[in-house]
From TrEMBL:
InterPro entries, sorted: Alkaline_phosphatase_core_sf (IPR017850), Phosphoesterase (IPR007312)
Annotated protein name in UniProt: NON-SPECIFIC PHOSPHOLIPASE C1
Signal peptide boundaries: 1-24
GO biological process, alphabetically ordered: phospholipid catabolic process
Keyword Transmembrane helix: no
Organism: Salix purpurea
Superkingdom, natural source: Eukaryota
Molecular functions per Gene Ontology: phosphoric ester hydrolase activity
Amino acid sequence: MASRRLSLTFLLFLYLVISSHTLAFDDLHKRHKSKIKGPIKTLVVLVMENRSFDHVLGWLKSSRPDIDGLSGSESNRVSASDPNSDEVFVSDDAVFIDSDPGHSFQAIREQIFGSNDSFADPAPMNGFVQQAKGMSETMSKTVMSGFKPSLLPVYTGLANEFAVFDRWFASVPASTQPNRFYVHSATSHGAMSNVRKDLVHGFPQRTIFDSLDDNGLSFGIYYQNIPATLFFRSLRKLKHLLKFHSYELKFKLHAKLGKLPNYAVVEQRYFDVELFPANDDHPSHDMARGQRFVKEVYEILRSSPQWKEMALLITYDEHGGFYDHVPTPVRGVPNPDGIIGSDPYYFKFDRLGIRVPTFLISPWIDKGTVIHEPDGPRPDSQFEHSSIPATVKKLFNLNSNFLTRRDAWAGSFENYFYLRDTPRDDCPETLPDVTTSLRPWGPKEDASLSEFQVEMIQLASQLNGDHVLNAYPYIGRSMTVGEANRYAEDAVRRFLEAGRAALRAGANESAIVTMKPSLTSRVPAGDNGLYQKDY
């Protein structure tokens, strides 16, 4: 039946294998819809890329002494073990970061502890310069730099109008994807970087999306290039594919109509191309673009009829290698699910990553609020990315269990919506304009990909079936940014179209579409066995 509905052109490129799954018990019976008792009915989450708190917000302390930021006396020595080596002090001269500082597990360990010894408590935070200098001579000054508040006017405005967390940490001392997994599932399922098996089949852990669905509440993902949330296997099920929306086409419309779901995830443009420059703040992207994007998201939400029952949380996945002076918590952090990281580190997931900028925005939040450490649920609990699913569970009165031991431990922030009797009526309708670029040139479409972008192409190759080729997992390493952007957008389009076609054909809603590659659209790329798309 499905083949009759697909065009001949579509058949040349797609082959659908619908995995048979038995419908879960909750899908066979009408589910009880959780009753939301508090003032917030919609939580919007936006996760930006690779910046530390001190790098972005540290210099706000000059006008906001209640924020734990920078005084100017903070420094690292060139050699963490040599007290007589040269010092590099923090500076407020960050404008555009062209290089990409180290943020692998081993690089972060050196940044936090100054060596491979990770037992110091409190963590000394003394190895940033040493680690950066090992990458290049100029990198050490880069990682110690921060932005003047005037260069990031949108964030300065949000900090003054709403709430800033100055004790929110990345969930794991590792790179982007493991931390993004914690945002929605309170675990990375043992991943400290890419895990090929899980990339191909999808990460299997339960997510907050599953809990919302089980409780009859809604969610939606508003994406631009490619939704990173498709790393989760459960979100690839046919029943969830209609919850993926084009940000450009649907986000403003849904907000205007008052139809944003209970839990809305907004994703950025991860590839920097001339027509649509990246706006995720990942080096070497222009942070002015990120400021305009955050301004746009806020102003869309502010004009929505849902505004008075809404909250927006903005955070960063990880620190991106930039300095932060607040010691990373190394004690009392629970392993979420008993999984130990792979060799050679065998990380126990028992300490957090480095502090990142985080904002809480809502008419239920007083002006100029600073949120420090949480009040429980345990004496050693902290705010970290698992605080998001922990808060969603409590905020929306979910009957489901916590996802892991980590979100059961993490501090939650729902109580901050109960400090007022009524919502504010003085929230700004607009935020400051960002009129100038912080980058001296435009996008470079012929540039090679960052590690994060390669991961996104590996995800795209799974969606369109190319993961079965010999090129995987090296696919993307020979692509330019422009090629990768086209490849990713095409993969997402084909995957979602195939899923919708399967739904129209009456396929099991719990099934997952598996694509087969169209080898006729690829040509060998040299003698290295890789393939490239013939656009």
